[in-house]
User: What shape does this take?
Amino acid sequence: MNKEEGMLAISRLVFELTITSSTTADLDILLERLFNILESYYDLQLEARGAILLLNPRGRYFQVAQFGMEPAWTTRTKWNSPSFTRSTINARCQTEDTLTSDEAPAIAHMLLLPLFTEGKGLGYTVLFAQPDFEMSETHLGFMDELARALSGLINRALTGETLRIRELELEESRADVIRSLGVASEYRDNDTGLHIMRMTNFAQVIAKALRLPEAMRELLYVAAPMHDVGKIGIADAVLLKPGKLTPHEYEIMKTHTGIGMTILEGKDELITAARDIAGSHHEHWDGNGYPRGLKADEIPLLARICAVADVFDALTSARPYKKAWPIEEAYDWVLAQSGKQFDPAIVTAFSTAMPDILRIRELYRDDIIDPKQVLTLPAIRQRKNVWIPWDNNLRIGIDIIDEHHRYLFDLINDLYEVVVRKRGAREVARLIKALDAYAKVHFRAEEQMMEHYGYQGISRQIGQHQTFEHKLAEFYQELHDNPFVAQFDVLVYLHDWLLHHIRVEDMQLQAIIKNS
Ligand SMILES: [Fe+2]
Ligand SMILES: [Fe+2]
Ligand SMILES: [Fe+2]
Assistant: This one.
């Protein structure tokens, strides 16, 4: 190969990759095209396999893409050559001999193509040459050029992913503002905000049972917490009254629907959905509700869903002026209201979603965890390829905590699925946020229980929970700078942290059972 041929190959590669990968940030595809083009350069004698390894800020390399090799999560290949113990990237392309695997060691000639962006080392593209191949200066020069081209392309993919995360953040920050308005309204008469979380999640599983499209369910998820936002405008004397309301006070209370609609003025989809819910969640299917006495289909669908979710949670929760109803009674009551207060189709969906609803009640409970409470929830569906499998050895013997932990596992496995299926950093960011939100709920519940039962190791537990929360926030930030690496990095961290924390720390919570 002469220099011209080499340059021609590289410009062809860059050109092809630029036009074909403009819509995808898939680095596997980038490698595949690279190999398609390099194939025609017979004097390179490359093996048909390679990988991209990127560096995290703590000096660890992650295999983020591959061709002709197993992906990172199933790979046995250990990248243990000297270059991968250093966090500085060599400026020039180099060759290095390495062992291919631990099981069947064979010497492979590795080519390390450095990846840089604005002078900062990102990692390497790793190729393998045939064992007897002698690398000449011309070859190395070609590889240097190739490395520069790949740097540019990978950098472009990184920027694309970062942009998508920013996009998500813009959307989310709007949703967050709206959500916090909902939470603020709730804090006035309920200081944990857990009613909103339960009710929103109930609404979600009902919507799933109704097979509503995903976009609509997302809208519901953001808008449902706003259902009582109008309570902001109700005087304390009425809203916080411990006893039964007089007819006059009740009329005042009812105005929270209209106030909610006034607050939620705006034209976009999200605000409209929130306004529908805030304005109509007390309407009844038979027309006997308020404020407008709407009937059946006149009531917006999302409001009809929220009505069931809201009432069921109100009935089964204790309030200063009433005890919580037993689940069966509340369930029977909701079913009896089918066609009266509630839409029959939604009551059917509610009934279908009951196993999920019961689980959500335990995941977001108001009262202090009773270590001796026995849960008899239906089995969770078994998933295939999981990142962090649940097994009964992880049970600490407090049913409710075990259920929380299983749910954390579930969220982590959802995250894994998104990473493996390459759904992009945007989805990863979304799931990390969800995981962070639930971890906080779980930690607070655990800490509350420890405090209540005078558990000795509480400060140690709180410290570890805080470390975890900080770490997750850090990963979320890192996802912006280095989306490809952070995806793998966070999975490894979650796996190790959670297993260790449950096995070593939470396991000791068993002591509480004896004291309770
Ligand atoms: Fe309400
Ligand atoms: Fe825990
Ligand atoms: Fe814990």
